[in-house]
Specification:
The structure holds two protein chains of two kinds. Chain A is mostly beta strands. Chain A folds into two domains: 149 residues, Jelly Rolls (Sandwich), CATH 2.60.120; 112 residues, Cyclophilin, CATH 2.40.100.10. In chain A, 8% of the residues lie in helices and 33% in strands. Chain A has three helices and 21 strands. The longest helix of chain A is centred in the N-terminal third of the chain and has 10 residues. Chain B is α+β, with helices and mostly antiparallel strands. Chain B folds into two domains: 67 residues, Gyrase A, domain 2 (2-Layer Sandwich); 122 residues, Cyclophilin. Chain B contains four helices and 13 strands. A seven-stranded mixed sheet of chain B has the order 7-6-13-5-12-9-10. A four-stranded antiparallel sheet of chain B has the order 1-2-4-3, covered by helices on one side. In chain B, a hairpin with a 6-residue loop joins strand 6 and strand 7. The chains are: A mainly beta, B alpha+beta. Chains A and B meet through strand 16, strand 19 and strand 20 of A and strand 3 and strand 4 of B.
C-alpha cells in the first residue's frame, strides 16, 4: 500500500522529520530530526514502520490532510483532538483512513508537538542520510504549505497486531534531570543551586533550535565570551541576560555562551513538549 | 599530547580543552578512525574538541588517557592549501580599512598575503572560521548585525575571516565576495573547507 496525500491546511509549522543526520556537526550541520524522538518512534511502531521512518512533526496545531488511497496513520506526542472525515478518533493508536478521507489534527491541549506517521513513511529526497527539515540551516524539505502533495512509501512488513499504545499524559510542570558542566565554573556556586530550585517558564521565543526559559538570571563568576566550542543536544546554555536556553534538535553546532549543565537524554522529550508559558524545573541527575 | 582539562558534557559527551588550535586538529585526526564505531561526533572548536560517544562517555580520567595515547600517533601532513578566488568589493571595506588605520589598498594586500587555516566550522553548514590572518587586521563585529548577508560574502571579525556559504543574518564586516560553492549537501564531501585545512585567498 502506498499513496499520496494533499495538504489542505498545513498548521503553523509542520515539518518532515526522521531521526536526523547525526555525525555532521564538524561540518556545521545540526542533527535535526524529531525534537521528541520517542514520540516519532512510537508513531512509527504503531503503523508498522521502522522507528526511523520519516513522519510529520506539528507545532501547537496540526494539519488537515486528504489521502488519495486508503492509508494507516498514527498520531502521538502532544495531546490533540484528531478526526477522520469529522469522526473523533484516538491518538497513540493506528487509524484507518479510507480513500479520499481527510485526517484533521487539531490544536494541542497538553504538550506542544504532535507527530503524525503514515504506514510506508513519507518519501523525500534524503540529504546526508536524513529526510529531516533543519530549520536553522534550511536543509531538507520545506515546511508543509497548503496545496502541497506528499507521497507515502511502500509499506514493508506486517501491520502490527496491537494498534494502541499506553502513554502517560504530559505533566503541567516537567522536572528535568541535569548533569553539571562543561562550564559550571563560569558561574557562581549559587547559580547551580538557583538553577535547580527556581521555577522556569518556557518563553514564547522557543523553537526547534532551543527552548528559552524565563526566571531569575544566573549569576556569572566571570565575564566575557568563550572561544566557540561544540554544543550537545540538551545543553543548558546561558546567554548575556543570565537566562538559560536548552539546546534542541536544530541547535547550532558551536557556540560561545557558557553551558552550565546538560539535560539527560531521557528527559529531552519533555523539553520538546514544553509549551510557552509552561513551568519547568531542574534537578541533579 | 595532553589535555589541559577534560570537562563532562552530558551523559555521552566530553569537552577536551587543548593548548592551541593545532592540538585540536591533531587530536581530531587521531580519533577520526573511531568515528562511527565508537564516536558519534568529533567537533573541533577554537581550543576544544567535543567528543560525543554512541553510548555513555567514559569518565574524564579515561578520556585524558585516550588523549595522551592519541598524541603518540603521527601528526597529519599539511595538505595543499585550498585556493579561494575573492574580489574585494564588500560594502564595509573602506570602513574596515579606516578602523585598521590603513588604506583600502593596503588592507587588500595584507588580507591576501596571509596563510589561513580553518580553525573550526560553525554558525552554518560549511561556515569556516579562518585564522592565521594579519594581526593588524582585527576589526570588531558590527554593532548592528545585518538581517541579510548574501551567499559568498567575504567577511572579517576579530581574528577570523570567513566566506558565508549561504544567505543568512550576520554581524561580520563584509569586505568582498567569493563565488566558490562552500557547501553542497548532495556531495559525499559536502563542505569545501574542513577544520584544519590550509586556505589561500587569491584575487579573482
Amino acid at each position: 500500500m502506498s499513496g499520496g496525500f494533499e495538504v489542505i491546511r498545513p498548521g503553523p509549522l509542520t515539518t518532515v522529520q526522521d531521526l536526523g543526520r547525526p555525525g555532521h556537526a564538524h561540518l556545521g550541520v545540526p542533527r535535526a530530526g524529531a525534537a521528541d524522538r520517542d514520540s516519532l518512534k512510537l508513531a512509527n511502531r504503531l503503523v508498522g514502520n521502522p522507528e526511523g521512518a520519516a513522519g510529520l512533526e506539528c507545532t501547537l496545531s496540526g494539519p488537515a490532510l486528504r489521502f488519495d488511497e486508503a492509508a494507516v496513520v498514527a498520531v502521538t506526542g502532544a495531546e490533540v483532538p484528531v478526526t477522520v472525515d469529522g469522526e473523533a478518533l484516538e491518538t497513540n493508536a493506528a487509524i484507518d483512513i479510507p480513500a479520499g478521507g481527510v485526517l484533521d489534527v487539531g490544536t494541542t491541549t497538553a504538550g506542544l508537538r504532535p507527530y503524525v506517521t503514515i504506514r510506508g513513511g513519507i518519501e523525500a529526497e534524503p540529504l546526508l542520510g536524513s529526510r529531516s527539515r533543519d530549520t536553522l540551516s534550511g536543509l531538507g524539505p520545506d515546511p508543509l504549505a497548503a496545496g502541497d502533495r506528499l507521497q507515502a512509501g511502500t509499506a514493508k512488513g506486517p501491520r502490527p497486531a496491537i494498534g494502541v499504545a499506553p502513554v502517560a499524559a504530559p505533566v503541567a510542570t516537567a522536572t528535568l534531570r541535569i548533569t553539571p558542566g562543561p562550564r559550571q565554573d563560569w558561574f557562581t556556586p549559587e547559580a547551580l543551586e538557583l538553577l535547580t530550585t527556581a521555577e522556569w517558564e518556557v518563553a514564547n521565543e522557543s523553537n526547534r533550535s532551543g527552548t528559552r526559559l524565563n526566571g531569575p538570571p544566573l549569576p556569572r563568576a566571570r565575564e566575557g565570551e568563550l572561544l566557540s566550542e561544540g554544543l550537545v543536544e540538551g545543553a543548558v546554555q546561558v546567554r548575556h541576560s543570565g537566562l538559560p536556553m536548552i539546546m534542541l534538535a536544530d541547535h547550532p553546532t558551536t557556540g560561545g555562551y557558557p553551558v552550565i549543565a546538560v539535560v539527560t537524554a531521557a528527559d529531552l522529550p519533555k523539553v520538546a513538549q514544553a509549551r510557552p508559558g509552561q513551568e519547568l524545573r531542574f534537578r541533579p541527575a | 599530547m595532553s589535555a589541559v582539562e577534560v570537562r563532562p558534557a552530558g551523559e555521552r559527551g566530553a569537552l577536551v580543552e587543548l593548548e592551541d588550535n593545532a592540538a585540536v586538529h591533531a587530536l581530531a585526526a587521531a580519533l577520526e578512525p573511531r568515528r562511527g564505531s565508537e564516536l558519534e561526533e568529533i567537533v573541533p572548536g577554537d581550543r576544544t574538541l567535543l567528543l560525543v560517544w554512541n553510548g555513555e562517555a567514559p569518565p574524564p580520567a579515561a578520556v585524558q588517557e585516550l588523549v595522551v595515547a592519541a598524541g603518540s600517533g603521527a601528526v597529519p601532513p599539511a595538505a595543499e592549501p585550498v585556493r579561494l578566488s575573492v574580489t574585494y568589493d564588500g560594502p564595509d571595506l573602506a570602513e574596515v580599512a579606516a578602523a585598521c588605520s590603513i588604506s583600502t589598498e593596503e588592507f587588500v594586500e595584507r588580507h591576501l598575503a596571509a596563510d589561513y587555516r580553518v580553525a573550526f566550522i560553525g554558525f552554518a553548514p560549511g561556515f569556516a572560521y579562518l585564522t592565521g590572518g594579519d594581526p593588524g587586521l582585527r576589526p570588531p563585529r558590527r554593532a548592528e548585525p545585518r538581517t541579510r548577508v548574501p551567499a559568498g560574502a567575504l567577511a572579517i571579525a576579530g581574528p577570523y575571516s570567513a566566506v558565508y556559504p549561504r544567505e543568512s543574518p550576520g554581524g561580520w564586516n563584509l569586505v568582498g565576495s567569493c563565488d566558490a560553492r562552500l557547501f553542497d549537501p548532495s556531495q559525499e564531501q559536502p563542505a569545501l573547507l574542513v577544520a584544519g585545512a590550509a586556505v589561500r585567498l587569491v584575487p579573482a
